[in-house]
Amino acid sequence: MRPDVWQLPLVGGHPAFDLVNTVEPRDGAPPHDHLSGPAALLGWTVAAGLIDGDEAGRAGQVWRDDPVAAEAGLAAVRDVRESLRLVMFALVPGGEAPADPVATGAALVRLHERWAGAAGRAALVLGGGDRPGVRLTYGTVPAMLIPDRVAEAALDVLRTADLTRVRRCPVADGGCDWLFLDHSRNGSRRWCSMADCGTSAKARRLTERRRAARTGA
Ligand SMILES: [Zn+2]
C-alpha cells in the first residue's frame, strides 16, 4: 500500500528534493503522484517544513473559497517539480537516455519564471527579537503562498547546494530512483534510506549469495 502523503519519507536532504520525490516510481510502472490534489499538497508542504500551521490555515481557507486558485497553485508546484527533476537528472545521469539539452534549458527557464513570479510577490520585512536584520519573505499572497515557497526552495537548492553531492537511489541495484543530497562525511551514501531501499537491497544480496552457495554445493 502506498503511504499517505503525511507519512511519505522526507529523505531528500532538502525540501526541493523531497518535492521531486513525491512522484514514484519514476521507472517502469505508471507513476503515482502523492500530490493528488490541493489538500494533499497542503499537507505535504507542512510536513516538509515549507509552511507552518498558521500559514497552512490561511492558504487552506483561500484555496477552499477559490478552487480554481487551488488548482492553479497545484499546477504551479507540479511545474516546478517536473522542471527541477529534468535539471537534476541532467546533472546526475541514471540508466535512461542522456538528457536533452533543449528540454533541460527550457526547464531552467520555467524555474526562473516561477521564481521571478514568487520574488515579485515577496516582501522585505524587518526582523525583530535577538536577531535584528532584514529578511526577504516569500509567500505574502495567501493563494500563491505554497507555490511561492516551493519556487524559493527550488532556487535555493540550485544556487546554494553542493550539486556534486546529489545522488539518485540506484534503480539498477533495486533502489527507487529518489533524489537526495548526500550529507555524509565521505560522500559515500548510496541509498535514499538505509532503513528502506538499503535494507531490502542487503536482503536481496544475501538471498542471492545463499542461492549461489546452494547451486555451488
Ligand atoms: Zn530508495
TrEMBL record:
It comes from the Bacteria. Residues 165-210 form the Zinc finger CGNR domain. InterPro entries: ABATE (IPR010852), ABATE_dom_sf (IPR023286), Znf_CGNR (IPR021005). Signal peptide: none annotated. This is Putative RNA-binding Zn ribbon-like protein.
